[in-house]
Amino acid sequence: LAHDIAIKVLPEALASDKDRLARFEREARTVAGLNHPNIVVLYSIEQDGPTRFLTMELVEGQGLDTHLLPGGLPGARVIELGVAIADALTAAHEKGVVHRDLKPANVMLSREGRVKVLDFGLAKLANADTDTDNGAVETMTVAAPLSTDGMIMGTAPYMAPEQLRGEPVDARTDLFALGIMLHELATGGRPFQGKSTAELASSILRDAPPALRSVRPDLPVDLERVIGRCLEKAPRERFQTA
Q1: Of these residues, 101, 119, 129, 149, which one is catalytic?
Q2: Considering only Cβ atoms within 10 Å of each terminal Cβ, which end of the chain, N or C, has fewer?
């Protein structure tokens, strides 16, 4: 139809496994049904010879990770971005789709300034052979076959405690990641730190996040309350919906 799209090639291990591919295609049909201005549209799954790939809406802009500032963004901007991401999560969760890998690099800001969340549900297709302890905690994606319980998937600094323990995930898992993102947008730093994967995991599982207004006293107390609620260790203590 003479318009530009984005193409994402599926890992060879997934494309060559008929059972995994069939499960992924069932998941992808659900993701393709998401229709929201803050969610990147998945158009189709295609094949060219042995290569399987997805066609998706092309978003021209930059990742939210490139907009992070030392000391944080203005409070009004943090709230504006948070509302847009929460709207996207709401639309997905209502369809039963959990992102599983929400992080600033998976959120695009278009040239027009619109928030676009990428890769809803696609963390399930992660290649099980990915190296999970390469020392690069900042960008490490811990991968697992599709949606098997007892396996870890996601990106380490944004994982919820239940993800780290290999427990089932749901909408509240995405809200924990949203809390980390909002804290990072507001302060310029993440609430949980570690020099290694193990230290980072320990911090997420056990440490209380720093009080937002101890770092940014100019921010609204309600923003601190919302972020703190998202970062509760137990899913039942978090907000239950985006």
Answers
A1: 101
A2: N
pLDDT at 22: 83
Contact status, residue 163 vs residue 153, Cβ threshold 8 Å? yes
Dist. CA 208–CA 153, nearest whole Å = 23
Pairwise CA distance, residues 179 & 95, whole Å: 22
**Is residue 101 flagged as an active site residue?**
yes
Q: Cα dist. 25→28, 46, 97, 99, 195 in Å?
A: 5, 11, 14, 16, 38
Check residue 124 and give its pLDDT: 55
Question: Which residues make Cβ contacts (< 8 Å) with residue 104, sequence separation at least 6?
Answer: 63, 64, 65, 67, 68, 181, 184, 185
Tell me the three-class secondary structure of 148-201, residue by residue.
Answer: CCCCCCEEHHHCCHHHHCCCCCCHHHHHHHHHHHHHHHHHCCCCCCCCCHHHHH
Q: What is the pLDDT of residue 20?
A: 79
Lowest mean pLDDT among 12-16, 59-63, 176-180, 184-188: 12-16
C-beta separation of 6 from 59 below 8 A: yes
